[in-house]
Amino acid sequence: MASGIFAILDDIASLMDDVAVTAKIAARKTAGILGDDLAVNAEKATGFLASRELPVLWAITKGSLVNKLIIVPIALILNAFFPVAIKVILVLGGFYLAYEGVEKIIEYLFHRSKEGHEAPVTSKQEDSDPEKTKIRSAVTTDFILSVEIVIIALGTVLQENITVQILTVSIVALLATIGVYGIVALIVRMDDAGYKLIRSSNEKGFLASLGLLLVKSLPVIIRILAVVGTIALILVSGGIFVHNIDYLHHLLPETASIIKEFVIGLLAGIIAVAIITGSKKVISLFR
């Protein structure tokens, strides 16, 4: 009896060792997309009243966890019975990310006079519609990025048994959510931490200087994240197309991959924006 228990414990320890190794490899493979995920979601989680930043971020985090709960089992099932569907989902998601990225560029270049369009989010706490819209947009984008993360993680353990696959992908998905949104929370609360340092030091000495630096750095970081997040959307979408469409994968092999992915993502976004804008105009004509 005792020997049976020890054998089970040994099997569990061996399984955990295997999962630790595969999770480490999967995390390393997904590091790039996690960086893009961080840039995109940090940009999306800003622009609210200070009192609403953490509640909004928590709402997005919960949405991200729900996304993972949906994606992980579906990815495992599709990989076992209908793997081609994963590529189709990724490509459709790529068009969505490309559309989001190009739409931001068009908005910046041609509609900057409408800079007040986000004012309800930052100045009217009682008006929750803009807030809910931004949360939905963030959760939807997170869904696409989560699909990419889960698929990449799954791709590193295809040769392992189903138990290792489930545990590895689940751990990477959970760490991705906690890690990304934990860092985002630290970023959006930088100014509050700075103010506290300034007050606690009576506006004198090193702590006061550090607090002032944090306060002044936040707007700069937010602007940088807005740019980096937009570029990340286009790069991720281009990467999805290049890695999942053979023609694009072999197109212009001498071109640096980052340039090819950006150009392809940009073109895909322009096409998506044109189709969606045209469709909206056609629908409006029949109303």
UniProtKB/TrEMBL annotation:
InterPro entries: YedI. The chain crosses the membrane at residues 70-99, 138-158, 164-188, 220-242, 262-279. GO terms for cellular component: plasma membrane. The keyword Transmembrane applies. Pfam families: DUF808. This is DUF808 domain-containing protein. The keyword Phosphoprotein does not apply. It comes from the Bacteria. Keywords: Membrane, Transmembrane, Transmembrane helix.
